[in-house]
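Students often ask why inverse folding is considered easier than folding. One informal answer: many sequences map to the same fold, so there is more than one right answer. In these notes we will look at a single instance of the problem. The structure comes first.
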């Protein structure tokens, strides 16, 4: 799939019309003009690779007692179980083949940091700051695209549930079980997801009844609409199904490894998500009852785990 690209540096008024068109069509867009230093990108991706290369006991030292925090081992989660409909065939009870490290805002909550690499926390915090800057700019573009003041979403992001996750799909000599995905078909839970990937393919988007691959371009961010933004817009914008498929290694019998960092933008726990006034009319009444960000998030997270660990739920 050839995703369209927006230049974030042009500002909301210039970006808004194109963003509206793209989000109505597929809900996935490439973002350039983001201003992120390439050396920081390489450094944080390298630090994440170093973390996942550690022995198992050192990685597990970063396991948190909180749900959806800290290190999670391979096959602990199953994103296919979070779907609310049957638009695609699900992957049964087979868990996903990735490991991860997840935090909320590292400036406002205690983080169980990995013991190595020693500069991991510094680089993670720097990347979070960049993602927060990009995320704020994207929200302003979204508001303008939807006919609202640029600051419209700001009150819903005072203490957001946003999380950031490093994801590693390790190389393996095994093709996995029947129907097993690297990450099963799902939609994201919040408003928008900002994704940085390496140059290995695997991401696929479900469009017009078929799966289409997304070419990796590390210099550009991939941004997609999540469930709550789709609800806010009364499905004017699409929270599109996507997955990560196993990619065979051309030089061997197994699968290529892959790495990404996803920043999942999620409103405050008590933020009310109800149809926007610019996205409804007499001929197009609201399709969803109002909900809260926390209610939707907690439901999805509870279904995310193949074998739910005994941990606390989302921050209140």
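Output (designed amino acids):
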């Amino acid at each position: 799939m050839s995703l369209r690209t927006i230049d974030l540096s042009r500002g909301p008024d210039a970006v808004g019309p194109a963003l509206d068109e793209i989000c109505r069509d597929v809900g996935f867009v490439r973002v350039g003009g983001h201003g992120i230093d390439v050396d920081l990108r390489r450094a944080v991706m390298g630090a994440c690779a170093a973390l996942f290369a550690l022995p198992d006991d050192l990685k597990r030292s970063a396991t948190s007692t909180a749900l959806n925090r800290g290190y999670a081992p391979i096959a602990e989660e199953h994103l296919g179980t979070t779907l609310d409909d049957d638009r695609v065939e699900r992957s049964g009870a087979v868990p996903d083949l990735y490991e991860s490290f997840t935090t909320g805002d590292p400036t406002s909550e205690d983080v169980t940091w990995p013991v190595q690499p020693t500069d991991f926390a510094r680089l993670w915090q720097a990347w979070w700051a960049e993602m927060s800057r990009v995320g704020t700019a994207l929200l302003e573009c979204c508001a303008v695209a939807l006919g609202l003041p640029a600051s419209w979403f700001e009150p819903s992001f005072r203490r957001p549930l946003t999380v950031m996750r490093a994801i590693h799909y390790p190389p393996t000599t095994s093709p996995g079980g029947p129907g097993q995905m690297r990450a099963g078909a799902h939609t994201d839970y919040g408003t928008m997801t900002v994704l940085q990937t390496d140059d290995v393919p695997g991401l696929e988007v479900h469009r017009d009844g078929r799966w289409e691959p997304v070419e990796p371009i590390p210099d550009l961010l991939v941004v997609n609409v999540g469930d709550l933004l789709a609800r806010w817009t009364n499905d004017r914008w699409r929270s599109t199904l996507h997955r990560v498929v196993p990619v065979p290694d051309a030089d061997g019998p197994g699968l290529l490894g892959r790495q990404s960092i996803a920043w999942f933008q999620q409103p405050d726990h008590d933020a009310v998500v109800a149809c926007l006034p610019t996205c409804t009319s007499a001929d197009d009444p609201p399709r969803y009852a109002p909900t809260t960000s926390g209610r939707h998030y907690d439901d999805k997270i509870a279904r995310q785990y193949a074998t739910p660990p005994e941990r606390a739920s989302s921050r209140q």
